[in-house]
Structure formats: C-alpha cells, structure tokens
From TrEMBL:
Cellular compartment(s): Endomembrane system
Main location: membrane
Originating species: Leptobrachium leishanense (Leishan spiny toad)
Taxonomic lineage from the root: Eukaryota, Metazoa, Chordata, Craniata, Vertebrata
Primary enzyme class: hydrolase
Domain PLD phosphodiesterase: 480-507, 791-818
Protein name: Phospholipase
CDD domains registered for this protein in UniProt: PH_PLD
C-alpha cells in the first residue's frame, strides 16, 4: 500500500493556489466525477477566519480501489523494538500500523458541554479504536473531523498534481486498475445539534473514519496519525498497551537533581515547549515533534502522582506529573482537557503499571516475581561461558554495567581464538543492528587504576551502535568516595546476569583454582601435586589467562591496562591469585526489573551529564512486563523459583534512595531456622552501634543467643578472604590499606567488647564455637621450576544461603559502603525456592529447595573436598557429626598443615610485628624438605582453613595519621 508522503507539503500545496472553498473535480468513478465538494464556510466550532468544509464526504477523498487495503487474518508482524532507537519526525514517520491488521473505529458515546462564555453547547465524541489487540479512545469535536477532512483533501489534490513517477506504485496502479469505490453520504450541518441528530452524526462519523482507515494512503498520512494520536511507539508489543498520546505544551525544569534547574521560580525562569507526549504502562516520555528525539523519560515509581489546577501547577489549566526525580508541568487549553490528561495518565499507571507504584517487601522498588527461571554459577568459568552464549543470542539490546570492564577479556577458555573475546562479540552484535549500552564507574584516577577511560574508548571505537557512559563526574557531582559497584549483563531485557563478577581481568576461574598457567593443563588441584610433563613448545604457551589476566593483586596491582596482552608479573616465579565468585541469571519479569534499574541509571546519567545530552546517546525505554514471559532464549539448566530484585542506591547514583539488600539480609538471618551460610569479600558490621551502622553482625548475635536460650541447633558459617585484596607485602604486615580492613574485620568478629564473639562469650563462654565458624580458603600447587607454593583463594562472592531454601546473590559486600544505600550502588536478588527435594536437616527428613540446596552442596563439596576419595556426605549442614567432625575439623587440620609446610600468613602464631619479623625469618618446610611436604600435602582436604582470629592481635591496625591512608575518612574503609 502506498505510504503517506515523507515530507510536509502543506506549504507546497498553498503555492499551487489550492483552496477548498471552490469547486473541483476529483478522480474516481463516473458518479464521483460528477459530484462536487460542498463549499466550505465558518462553522460554530471553527476558529475565527478558518474555513472548514461544512459537509464531510468520503467520496471526495476516493482514490480508487487500488489503494484500498485487503486485510487478511495473519499473525501480526509487530514492528521491532529497535525503532525506539531511530524515531523520525512526527510528520515523516510513514506507516506506524501493524502490517495486515485492520484499524476500526466506533463512536461509543458523546459528551455535551458549554465552553467559556458560549451559550451554545458543544458535542465531544469518544472514538474507540481497535488495532489488533491494541485499543484506545480519543475525544474529538466535529470541527476536528472537518480539519482532518480538509488536510486529507489537500494531501490528495497535491499528490494528483505531481508529475508522473514511474517508480510510484500509486501512479502505476492508478493507470492500470479500474477505479471504483462506494460512496458515503454527506453528513449534516455542524449546527443544530439535538439528541437525534447527534446520534445520526455519531453513526456517520464512525462510518466516515472506517472508510478512510481502510486506505493506507490516508491512514499513514501525518494528519490522520495526529488525529488518531498514534506514532512509531504506539504499537510496539514490548511497550505494552497503546496508552495515551498527543501534542502537549510542557514547562522546563522541575528536576530534583541539584544543578539541573534555573535559579528562581518566577515564570521568566521557565521555558514552554511543544512536545509529543507518550504514556505507557510504566513510564511516560515526550519527544520533539520536529526531530522525533526523545527529550525525557519519566519512570513511574512510588512517588508518582498527578494533579490538576493552578494551585499545584502555577499555571492556568495546568497538569502536574511527578515522581521521585522530577515534577513535570503541562499546560492545556482548557480545564476539561487538563482534567482529561491528568485522569488518563493516572488511570493508565494504576491499571497497567501498579507494580512500580508502591514500595514492596524489604522496601524494594520491585515486587516478588513468581515462577522465574533462575540458575546459579560458582566461579567465572561457567558464568562467563553462559554470558557469551547469551550475548550471541541478543536481537535488540545489550546492557552492561560494571565496576570494572576489560574489553579484551576472553569469555570462553582456553583462549585459543578471539571469537569469544568480549569486544569481538559486542562488535559482531553491533554490526548486526543490536544496540549495546554500557555504564561504567568513573574512578578517581589517582586512587584507582582500572582505567575506565580506556575501556570506554576501546568499546566505542568498535561501532556506532556501542555507547558507553561513565559516572560520576566527581567534581560536579561532589561524589569522591563512592562507587558504582554493581555488575550486570542484560540481553533484550529478558535475560539478566548479575552477581559479583565484573567482566574484567583476574575474574575467570574454575573449581581447580590453579596457581600457574604456563602451558596446557599446567597446575595441580589439592591433594597429591601431579607433575606435568608437557612438550617444550606447549608448556610455554599460556592458554587460560593471557596477559593482564594472569594476576595477583597482593603481589602487584594492575598497570598499563591499555596493553592487555602484556604480562605485568612474572608467571614463572609468581603464582596467580585464585578468584572465587558467585553469579546468577534470571529471566522474565525479574529480568525486566533488573533492566529497568539499568535504564533508570542510564537515563539519570544522560540527564545530569551535559556531554551525554546529544541524540547519539539515546534515552532508554523499559519493556513491559506483559510480554516478559515470552523470552526467545533461556539459559539451559534454569529452574523455577520466586525471585525479587534488591538494590542499594541513593540520589547521587540513581536519583532515588533504597537499601533493600540490607533489609533482606537482616530479615533472612533473623528468620533463619537452621543455618546461615555467608560467603563475602568483606565482613564489616556492627553489634552495638558506633561508626559502623549496618546491623548484620547484631542480628547474627541475636539469632545465636535465641538458639542458645532455646537449646536448639543453629549454625552460622562465615567464609571471607584471609587477606583483603590490596597490594602489599604481607610479610611486612601487609601495608596500611590491608591493615585498615583487617582492623574493622577483626573489630566485627572478635576484637573489642562489641564484637560478635565477645558478645557471645559474655553469655555462653566458649560454647560460641558450637554455633559459629569463621573460615578462609587456601590452595597449593607447584611453580614451573617444581617448587611448592601456596596462595589463599580470594573470595569475591557476595552470597548468603539460609536453610537450604533462600539465597541472596549480588554485588553487595557486607559493609556500610554496600548496604546503607547512601554510598556505593549495588544490585542483588533474593531467590526463594518453590521446587523441593527430600534431604536431611539435623538428622531428620527435610524438604530442601532445589536451587538453594544444589548451590550449598556445590560450595561444601568444593570447600571440603568431599568428592575426593574418601568421599563423605555434606547434605546435613547442622548435624553435630558434620559441623564439628567435618567442617570445623577440616578447617583446623588444613590450617595446621599449611602453617607447618609453608609458614603461611596470616597465622594465629603471630600476635605482633616483632613476632612477624621473627616468624618470616625462619625458612619454611616446603623449601627445606619438599619431598616430605609433597607427602604431607596429600592430607589436605579441599580448601577451607580456619580464619586466624589472633593475627597481630596485640597491634593497632588502624593506619597512622601521618600516612595517606590515615587521612582518608573512616567511611571509605567501612
């Protein structure tokens, strides 16, 4: 079908001297050729001096049978969601309707009202339109039909005067197809309304519209689209219902973000602009009519409200729309119109988007999502592999946000080719039309060497469809201490990966936790070290960790990240630092929630940073949850569970405040019945006030004391890194940064009257060991020269498992930075099982959740080496035989063996700096008697070791005041 012209030709028509007031012939059948268009005159509804056609005659607009659509019943060909990235000016949008799907109109009712000083009443027609499964209602007066008729007639006459164009289908079909068309009766005069005449006119107007809507030549013309209140965004299934659209006048300002508004509140400080407003199920936006560019997106949230009237808007006939981040003022032509807009916007939000209009459990912005497909990942190997496969399935959008992103990271290992390198995958998808949007933390370069500027440049040079924004600007936003710490990858807003894993160097690992990588298969698992005899050539080719990916942050922090394939530590002499982490993938509505969070942050960053206000960095639109359960891709191995998205955000990071991660942690621990397993990069909390404010430590104490008073079994497992992940020589005490974190960690766990263990000892003496275990992880292997070596496994996980039924996985550490909301931004999910398997708890049958139980079993099997002969069962985590005889015993034995063989640090044998110097001066057994040590190492089970609670216990570990670490605010460390 012929589309409407792609340019505004109204001015050109005037140059032809076309007027609707005279008589002219129209093409069509012989009958219509003899018909004359009735003269136009001013009608009671017309503006002064504006001539409108008195009668509406569809025959006058007849262009022949060739241009009448023949609709067929076929599956709707829904326009792709990517049209949101390529919006055209309103007059040049062409076909916006679904192909092969009719548009029908029905005038359901009329309203009669008196406007202003007019004594005469006017009639307002409610036109109900249907297009496939999309329905909407527009309200029009008779004069609006007259204006439409005038515009369409001008359009037709202008096209008929164009020179013959052999490329025009319209010209060809007009020349070859017999043109006949049924006529439509003329409508009565606009004046003299009565109930009978109104009813008759109502019927004729509906017939008139339906005739025109069968013709694409008129249906796709911009005047018809504006009359119907439709645009390119109207019929995208992923944007939900049709919603409300139309031209409005809006006022500038209203942002609740410092620095975005004009100083003062006088009218001269405001600017009024005409915009095309689109209201969808969970957001509204407005576009510039001349360019189609989206100028702002307002997401519905618990702060959403609408109001009408001069008192709340400071504008006659004003409409006030607000959420947590902005107050938007619209100006209407009369009170009736203002009331209509205000009521309709609120009705759409409450009817179609109620999920985001209220605060949910844990004070979270998102609700609990039932029957969500979810899968856990332990370590980067399986996580990166699944991310790579999902990225390859992307059709429309990819969202990535990371604390640190390394463009050249290999997602599948061994890294024999570049096919699965992150930047290569993103480039291929961008070339295929997928839009890639990346949000990176902008670091203080003098304090942190992750070089996000290089990452941004490297990605954006790949393809125009890849956009990267960094936030915050430290000076303008006055944010110097906090970070965007969340990690997320979203595919088409339908599949979302999140957790503790940045797509960055050093993160890839598997359950082997290898210490070396100088050739295929090099490295040994715990147990008997297996000497490798690779060929001379292959042994010198690294395959798992290339260049900067081979790392040990304690030995040396990353440098020269713009040279990704150059080693920065000697892999022949220095072991790498094994990396343990946990991630999760969610689908469906929960994925929509996570994507909405990314969109909120992206749009917030675009709004506050002037360099991103250009159209090349588009506003993003959240997809509707109504289509969330039809993903085109699901990660294999996923299971159904109940999922809720959690986050820590504040006004500086996302334009609103939330600390639902902390609330979820506290409630889950408090409500735990059998055990709590915590695996985290940090463990800094409070038990009795002070400078630390998160109450996780306090609720652990309360829950253990409750179990003690009831004489019931309850276990708390805490697994954290043996040393904080900062560069420093542990043999010299580790440096000020390491000691600062150790100070607050020990203050939380065991040092001072307000520590967890001190408070427990006060009530139960040494019986606290029956309830609580604090451990770290360590492994060992051999270097290429054959020397034995050990290294602790760096725990970067942010994981809690409760009762084999609840799991929290995310990016949030257990400290105030991550949990209080006002500092670092974080993202997490709580997964609650709905599918159960028969297991054992406290030596009794127990229905364990499939998701939580399988994750906990994987953790325990790996940490305890339970699957290596002789194997043992870890299914019952609270039984005395397991907690005392397996978990605590294995941790103690492993720690003792490592101390005996390697004289490891940290250790309980060193209480002071003097003792540290003496301890490190003695050669270790691994260097003096390696053959015997190989035999001893066979007694190591898994990786779990006791956390050395007495290391440097007589020393103050706070940084000296005359050091650079000493002048940093305490909040940075906590």
């Amino acid at each position: 079908m012929r589309q409407g012209l792609g340019w505004d030709h109204m001015g050109v028509e005037a140059s032809f001297g076309l007027e609707l007031g005279g008589e002219h012939q129209v093409s069509g059948s012989e009958e219509t050729k003899d018909r004359q268009v009735l003269p136009a005159m001013s009608t009671p509804d017309s503006p002064d001096g504006c001539l409108l056609p008195l009668h509406l005659d569809s025959a006058a607009l007849d262009i022949g049978l060739d241009e009448v659509d023949s609709f067929h019943e076929a599956e709707e060909n829904v326009p792709p969601f990517l049209v949101t990235y390529n919006l055209k000016p309103l007059k040049h949008q062409g076909a916006v309707f679904l192909k092969g799907v009719p548009v029908t109109a029905q005038i359901a009712q009329t309203e009669r009202y008196t406007s202003g000083s007019k004594v005469r009443t006017s009639t307002l027609y409610s036109v109900h339109l249907t297009h496939g499964h999309f329905t909407w209602t527009i309200k029009k007066k008779y004069k609006h039909f007259q204006e439409l008729h005038r515009d369409l007639l001008r359009h037709k006459i202008f096209v008929s005067l164009l020179p013959f164009n052999p490329l025009s289908r319209f010209s060809e079909t007009r020349a070859h197809v017999e043109t006949t068309s049924s006529e439509m009766p003329s409508l009565p005069h606009a004046s003299g309304d009565s109930s009978r005449r109104t009813s008759s006119k109502q019927k004729y107007l509906a017939e008139y519209l339906n005739v025109l809507l069968t013709t694409s030549f008129y249906r796709n013309y911009h005047a018809m689209r504006e009359f119907l209140d439709v645009s390119q965004l109207s019929f995208l299934a992923d944007l939900g219902p049709k919603g409300l659209e139309g031209l409005i006048v809006k006022r500038s300002g209203g942002h609740r973000i410092q620095g975005l508004n004009c100083f003062g509140h006088h009218q001269i400080c405001y600017r009024w602009s005409k915009r095309w407003l689109v209201v969808k199920d969970s957001f509204l936006l407005y576009q510039k009519p001349d360019s189609g560019e989206i100028s702002f997106v307002l997401l519905f949230d618990p702060g959403f409200n609408t109001d009408v009237g001069k008192k709340s808007t400071e504008t006659k006939y004003g409409v006030r729309i607000e959420n947590f981040s902005r107050t938007l003022i619209l100006k209407c032509s009369n009170y009736r119109q203002a009331r209509f807009w205000g009521q309709q916007i609120k009705q759409i939000a409450e009817e179609h988007g109620p999920d985001y209009l209220r605060v949910h459990r844990f004070d979270a912005f998102s609700p609990v999502r039932e029957k969500t497909q979810v899968k856990w990942f332990v370590n980067g190997s399986t996580y990166f592999d699944a991310v790579a496969d999902a990225l390859m399935q992307a059709r429309e959008e990819i969202f990535i946000t990371d604390w640190w992103l390394s463009p050249e990271i290999h997602l599948k290992r061994p890294a024999l080719k570049d096919d699965f390198r992150l930047d290569i995958i993103l480039k291929h998808k961008a070339e295929a039309g997928v839009r890639v949007n990346v949000l990176l933390f902008k670091e203080m370069e003098m304090a942190l060497g992750i070089n996000s500027g290089y990452s941004k440049r490297a990605l954006m040079l790949l393809h125009p469809n890849i956009k990267v924004m960094r936030h915050p600007d430290h000076v303008s936003s006055i944010v110097f201490l906090w970070a965007h710490h969340e990690k997320m990858v979203a595919i088409d807003q339908s599949v979302v990966f999140l957790g503790g894993l940045d797509l960055a160097y050093g993160r890839w690992d598997d359950h082997s936790y290898r210490l070396t990588d100088v050739g295929p298969g090099e490295g040994a698992q715990n147990g008997t070290p297996k000497p490798e005899v690779p060929s001379e050539e292959s042994s010198m080719v690294p395959q798992l960790w290339l260049g900067k990916d081979y790392s040990n942050m304690i030995f040396k922090d990353w440098v020269q990240l713009d040279k990704p394939f150059e080693d920065f530590i000697d892999r022949q002499k220095n072991p790498r630092m094994p990396w343990r982490d946990v991630g999760v993938v969610i689908h469906g509505k929960a994925a929509r929630d996570a994507s909405r969070h990314f969109i909120q942050r992206w749009n917030f960053t675009k709004t506050i940073k002037s360099k991103y206000k250009c159209p090349s960095f588009p506003f993003l639109l959240p997809k509707s949850v109504s289509t969330a359960d039809k993903p085109h891709y699901t990660v294999p191995g996923s299971h159904s569970a109940q999922v809720q998205l959690l986050r820590s955000v504040d006004w500086w990071s996302a334009g609103c405040s939330e600390c639902s991660i902390l609330n979820a942690y506290v409630r889950c621990i408090s409500e735990a019945e059998h055990y709590v397993y915590i695996e985290n990069q940090f463990f800094i909390s409070c038990t009795a006030g002070g400078t630390i404010h998160n109450t996780i430590g306090d609720v652990i104490v309360q829950r253990i004391l409750r179990a003690y008073s009831m004489n019931s079994k309850f276990r708390v497992f805490i697994v954290i890194p043996l040393i904080p992940g900062f560069e420093g020589n542990i043999e010299m005490g580790g440096g000020n940064s390491i000691q600062a974190i150790l100070h607050f960690t020990y203050s939380t766990i065991c040092r001072g009257d307000n520590s967890i263990i001190s408070r427990l000892k006060e009530k139960m003496g040494d019986d606290w060991q029956v309830y609580l275990s604090v451990c770290g992880l360590r492994t060992h292997g051999s270097m290429p020269n054959g020397s034995l070596v050990t290294e602790f496994i760096y725990i970067h996980s942010k994981l809690m498992i409760v009762d084999d039924r609840k799991v929290i996985i995310g990016s949030a550490n257990i400290n105030d930075r991550s949990l209080m909301g006002k500092r670092d931004s974080e993202l997490a999910v709580i997964v609650e099982d709905t599918e159960f398997i028969t297991s054992t708890m406290d030596e009794k049958p127990y229905q364990a959740g499939r998701f939580a139980h399988s994750l906990r079993m994987d953790c325990f099997n790996t940490l305890l080496g339970a699957l290596s002969p002789p194997c043992f069962d870890v299914s019952d985590p609270v039984a005395d035989g397991f907690f005392a005889d397996v978990w605590r015993s294995t941790a103690f034995n492993n720690a003792s063996l490592y101390d005996q063989i390697f004289r490891c640090l940290p250790t309980n044998a060193v209480h002071s700096h003097r003792a540290l110097r003496e301890y490190t001066a003695v050669p270790n057994l691994a260097s003096t008697s390696p053959e015997w040590c190989v035999e001893l190492l066979t007694q190591i089970r898994g990786h779990v070791v006791e956390f050395p609670l007495h290391f440097l216990s007589t020393e103050s570990l706070l940084p000296p005041l005359n050091s650079k670490e000493g002048v940093i605010p305490t909040d940075v460390w906590t």
